[in-house]
Amino acid sequence: MCELLALSSLRPTRLTFSLDALASHSGPASRHRDGWGAAFYQDGDVALFREPTAASDSPLVRFLEAQGPSTTLAISHIRRATRGPAALSNTQPFLRELAGRVHVFAHNGNLSGIEQSRKLVFDRYRPVGVTDSEHAFCVLLERIRGLWDATPSLPSLGERLSVISEFAADLRELGPANFLYADGDALFAHGHRRLQAATSNVEPPGLFVLSRRCEDADESVRARGLYVAPGFQEVSLVASVPLTEDHWQPFAEGELVAVSAGRRIDVATS
Asked: What pTM did the predictor assign?
């Protein structure tokens, strides 16, 4: 199964060791060698980097580890192809514009039969590639665009959580549905089930979260795999598996967490 990584922080920071740790999971002995991608929010837009090759072999990944853009919200993904060939069009994260905002999505799992589902349909938004993950993203955008069309400002967090929670429940009927979704305001992380190395079973947890507060970080300090600028900082990392020896918290099965500025601001289950 693919692997996911997301960052939300109060102040701009850079993924360093965390991105390297994720990329290392696509090494020669790994099955996650069919592509990688990383999306970094900046000034209302997103810098998106993707390659249909193994992250562990990529000079671009090495560059991003050392010189990647500072951001308060990022989503990254390494791929093991289960639907569609290794191609740029099938490489996550996926990105679309909605209501003048850039929306980003990445999924881990196998949604069997999604193309035939009468509930998981789309109209305006269409996939570029052939993956079940991009199909799911187009469905989510169709469902959530009504909220954005109905208001000139940001829809409430509760409204967005309600739509995303119902969407997640529909995905879970088809198979493992771990995903990361961001709308430029908040990160939404849904943990379900994944292949567990210890048991070789597909079961919870599907995601883990690590949250940290740095009261007075020095410019040269790298804390929890992040470049930390001077001053107060609050950071949350979400990943498919723990990337450090810190005490990562597992998601409950079907848990949907909203994170903004590095802090978990709401939780929903369905």
From this structure: 0.91
